[in-house]
Write a structure and sequence with these properties.
Elements: H1 2-29, H2 33-50, E1 59-61, H3 66-76, H4 78-102, H5 105-110, H6 113-126, H7 128-135, H8 149-169, H9 178-193, H10 199-202, H11 219-225, H12 230-247, H13 252-274, E2 279-281, H14 283-292, H15 298-311, H16 314-320, H17 325-349, H18 357-372, E3 375-377, E4 382-384, H19 385-399, H20 410-424
Antiparallel strand pairs: 1-2, 3-4
């Protein structure tokens, strides 16, 4: 019985670690955080079903989709965006089939470090204006001033400072929750300054069904969103290798990368059916597994159950939506910069030689297309941001001549093992 209670408490702890990032994505994109909690729990259970509950993995909101979701909601509406995200999840399913047929090395040939590094950098750097605008009290696109400049700076900078101090100096499990620490401090400062509005909390009941949204399917939105799935697929492979390094098991072989990709894809598609953001495996939780040695997948089952339960507490969801935008902006300055740093680290640790003209061309064009705002297409349908640069990087990698062909994931494994080693020594 004691072991059972320990599993339950460990599950609550895992949700606590994932919580900050999990709800931050819907708050940034205008989606419902309660729905995000529900779909994260549901997605985790679907992933466990697909992988026969062999991996201690938790799925939460994907940061790779933030900019595409914001653009798609503004252009086609929330329902059409959900339909597009459903189809993006099907891209994972297609990848899982290809991996099952051709082996895991297929992904390395399609997405080597020279492709994945700059794509991940584009995700972080492309979101930099959103973070800065919100830190200055504006909307993410900078079109409206929600808080005065002075108030915004007084809130966003303490949130940023707290986040970076916790990420740098905290020990143990507390090092894994810098986002929550930043939110707490920023929120307390906001309360002191009187810029938090509790009207919606007072009008919401304690128990309430989350605001689910049914998807609609529009071809233009679908074609725009499909390429975005490339980026979280990259992240997924890294997380599978990382959790394998921590637990000492080869999850690429058993349950198999095709099963993990299938679970991730079905979780993303299922989330869209309820109006939630896409799901992805969470590195924060992988770090918590490394610290706590909670290798039992049942722990993640309990984390999923707690997430689903929280989704139905109406006042809790309303409280999350009272967090002022400058609080989130301050945190995102570090968060989005860190994403760009991960992409740079992939290039460095994989020893991608930018002195080689082929590699330089791929990285240079990908970065400028992604960050510069290049758009290809018509007014009815076009590609931009992560959608465009992901396809461009893959296309250039396939057509430009290269000296050798590597058919395994050893480069990705080396990068992950180096990261895990640094994490253990902190």
């Amino acid at each position: 019985m004691l072991a059972g209670w320990r599993l339950i408490l460990a599950g609550a702890q895992m949700l606590f670690v994932a919580f900050g990032a999990l709800v931050l994505v819907p708050l940034i994109t205008g989606l419902n955080p309660s729905v995000a909690l529900f779909t994260a729990g549901l997605g985790t259970l679907i992933f466990q079903l697909c992988t026969k509950r062999t991996m201690p993995v938790f799925l939460g909101s994907s940061f790779a989709f933030i900019a595409p979701i914001i653009f798609a909601v503004e252009t086609w509406g929330q329902a059409a965006t959900m339909g597009a995200l459903f189809c993006a999840g099907m891209v994972y399913v297609l990848l899982s089939i290809l991996v099952a047929i051709r082996g895991p090395g297929f992904l390395h040939r399609l997405l080597p470090p020279v492709v994945t590094g700059p794509i991940i950098m584009v995700i972080g750097l492309g979101l930099a204006p959103v973070a800065v605008n919100m830190a200055l009290g504006k909307t993410g696109d900078g079109s409206a001033q929600l808080f005065s400049y002075a108030d915004a700076i007084m809130v966003s900078m303490p949130a940023l400072l707290t986040t970076l101090l916790v990420a740098t100096y905290a020990k143990g499990v507390f090092r894994l929750v810098p986002i929550i620490a930043g939110v707490v401090v920023g929120y307390l400062v906001s309360l002191f300054m009187g810029i938090v509005d509790f009207t919606s909390v007072q009008q919401t009941g304690w128990l309430q069904v989350p605001g689910f949204i049914m998807p609609e399917f529009h071809l233009a939105a679908i074609l725009f969103m499909l390429p975005v799935a490339i980026a979280p697929a990259i992240e997924h492979v890294g997380d599978v290798l990382a959790i394998g390094s921590i637990t000492g098991k080869d999850y690429v072989q058993k349950p198999g990368l095709h099963r993990t990709l299938l679970g991730d894809g079905l979780a993303t598609s299922a989330a869209s059916l309820f109006g939630g953001p896409p799901n992805t495996t969470y590195s924060e939780v992988t770090g918590a597994v490394m610290l706590t040695k909670a290798f039992n997948p049942v722990v993640m089952t309990w984390a999923a159950v707690f997430a689903i339960a929280l989704a139905f507490i109406g006042k809790f969801g309303s409280m999350l939506q009272t967090i002022p935008t400058p609080v989130m902006g301050g945190i995102m300055i570090l968060l989005f910069g860190s994403i760009a740093g991960v992409g740079m680290n992939i290039l460095i640790k994989s020893r991608v030689d930018l002195g080689a003209q082929r590699n330089l061309v791929i990285v240079a064009v990908t970065l400028v297309f992604g960050i510069g705002g290049m758009t290809l297409g018509s007014s009815d349908w076009h590609l931009q941001g992560v959608s465009l640069c992901g396809l461009v990087a893959i296309f250039l990698n396939l057509i430009l001549p290269q000296a050798d062909q590597i058919n395994d994931l050893h480069e990705e494994q080396e990068v992950v093992e180096d990261m895990v080693h640094h994490g253990e020594n902190k």
